[in-house]
Inverse folding.
């Protein structure tokens, strides 16, 4: 990855699932450039995030949106484009996390995951595309892992894994489909678990023990969406790899539990062998 060559000053950014956690951190990072940033969330009270965006240096807009409701997604995207004069960056972050085996998962939980994760990301991209085509440096960034046909990724949380891999296939497909329109599409995933409400609610003590903060994903996302769209598309990115390639060396500041040795961090369970090999190369291992 080349060094950042673009700024988000004067740009319009839309972040789904942007009222908390990773989405909120990405929104605030983009706002520091002076961008107009809209966040979509299920919460009816998301005005505080819009205020935070303004304090960070951007122009904030927060909208309540059910990502499984086509009409709401279409209306939200249209409103963002109308109020900001277009859309330059779409961040597909909205995700429902339910870590259960098939026999334990209710169909309501399955439907919520599949409609929010894969279908919601598709709908956001579909309705944003006409606006992205008018941008001078358009990016779609989807927060999902690289799809991998290995049993170990499916044996404990098959439905969740399938929904996130579906997002990865969509991110890769959009890169191919929209290349002629100048729209980049990339995926981003964390090397470690990230301290969010979703992680706190997942019930896995090992994953919850020593995560990193959402800011590492925000910094990596910023590096990606400020790349030249014509030159950086179709990639499955890992947060630490992105930042190391951008020249970052201090990762202690991202530890949610200060003082945690980097080797003791809680690792995410969907990192591909290819991504891990590249990270170890950069780490000098």
């Amino acid at each position: 990855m080349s060094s950042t060559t673009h700024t988000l000053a004067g740009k319009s950014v839309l972040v789904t699932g942007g009222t908390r956690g990773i989405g909120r951190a990405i929104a605030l990072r983009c706002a520091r450039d002076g961008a107009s940033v809209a966040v979509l969330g299920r919460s009816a009270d998301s005005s505080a995030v819009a205020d935070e965006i303004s304090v960070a240096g951007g122009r904030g807009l927060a909208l309540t949106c059910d990502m499984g409701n086509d009409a709401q997604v279409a209306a939200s995207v249209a409103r963002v484009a109308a109020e900001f004069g277009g859309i330059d960056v779409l961040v597909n972050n909205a995700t429902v996390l339910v870590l259960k085996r098939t026999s334990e998962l209710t169909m309501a939980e399955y439907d919520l995951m599949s409609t929010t994760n894969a279908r919601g990301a598709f709908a956001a991209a579909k309705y944003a595309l006409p606006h992205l085509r008018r941008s001078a440096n358009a990016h779609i960034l989807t927060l999902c892992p690289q799809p991998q046909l290995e049993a170990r990724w499916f044996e404990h949380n098959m439905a969740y894994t399938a929904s996130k891999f579906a997002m990865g296939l969509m991110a890769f497909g959009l890169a191919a489909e929209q290349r002629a329109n100048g729209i980049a599409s990339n995926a981003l995933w964390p090397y470690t678990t990230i301290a969010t409400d979703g992680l706190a609610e997942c019930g896995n003590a090992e994953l919850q023990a020593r995560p990193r903060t959402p800011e590492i994903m925000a910094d990596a996302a910023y590096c990606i969406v400020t790349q030249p769209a014509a030159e950086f598309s179709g990639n499955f990115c890992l947060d630490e790899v992105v930042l190391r390639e951008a020249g970052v060396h201090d990762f202690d500041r991202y530890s949610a539990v200060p003082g945690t040795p980097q080797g003791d961090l809680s690792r995410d369970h969907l990192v591909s062998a290819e991504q891990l090999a590249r990270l170890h190369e950069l780490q000098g291992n």
